[in-house]
From TrEMBL:
The name this protein goes by in its record: Acetyltransferase (GNAT) domain protein
Single annotated GO MF: acyltransferase activity, transferring groups other than amino-acyl groups
Pfam family, one: Acetyltransf_3
Annotated Gene3D superfamilies: 3.40.630.30
InterPro entries membership: Acyl_CoA_acyltransferase, GNAT_dom
Domain (N-acetyltransferase): residue spans on this chain: 4-146
Natural source organism: Candidatus Bilamarchaeum dharawalense
Domain of life the protein comes from: Archaea
């Protein structure tokens, strides 16, 4: 597919993002994996869009909206956490990998100093897209269901 472009999220995108966000695979790979209500979604996004240090982009390829990129500040030292979602229709075409690259370019232009990504251990595609772009695994979180 063509080049990945990043367009700022607007309120008009919220319905599309809602559909993507509640897909089974997206929920399974999220740390907040419950089904999100329209009300919760709207509350989250209205607050998010008003916070100017939270970056939110629709990933656009050949004029199609293919996914969502979010960058959230983690501390006051320009460290940001990256979240990527590619619509199920457009997965396995290299767009996740290209989006991580675009996020790094955006970070360089914006003065962001460090990017981190939290990935569930079974999320192989996600590990690949970050590692192929030079992200280095730093720690593992272990869980035990008592
Ligand atoms: C993770 C995600 C962003 C990857 O996007 P994508 O556009 O499908 O990724 P790419 O096409 O760039 O593929 C990356 C690699 O993973 C591999 N891959 C993709 N889907 C796979 C699958 N279901 N099983 C095994 N490997 C897979 C690809 O073959 C590719 O590997 P390669 O470069 O060695 O061929 C996308 O699957 C997604 O949005 N998933 C749901 C939400 C999510 O998990 N977000 C990330 C949370 S950290």
């Amino acid at each position: 597919m063509g080049e990945v472009m990043l367009r700022k999220v607007s309120e008009d995108d919220l319905k599309q993002i809602f559909e993507w966000r509640n897909e089974r695979e997206v929920r399974e790979n999220s740390f907040a994996s419950h089904k999100i209500s329209w009300e919760e979604h709207q509350t989250y996004w209205k607050k998010r869009l008003a916070q100017h240090d939270f970056y939110s982009f629709i990933i656009v390829v050949e004029k199609e909206n293919v996914g969502l990129l979010r960058l959230n500040p983690v501390d006051a030292n320009q460290k940001y956490e990256v979240h990527i979602l590619i619509s199920s229709t457009y997965r396995r075409r290299g767009l996740g990998q290209a989006t991580v690259f675009a996020a790094i370019q955006f970070a360089k232009q914006t003065g962001i100093k460090k990017l981190i990504a939290k990935v569930k251990s079974k999320n192989i595609p996600s590990k690949k897209i970050f590692e192929k772009n030079g992200f280095v695994p730093r720690c593992s979180v272990y869980e035990y269901n008592v």
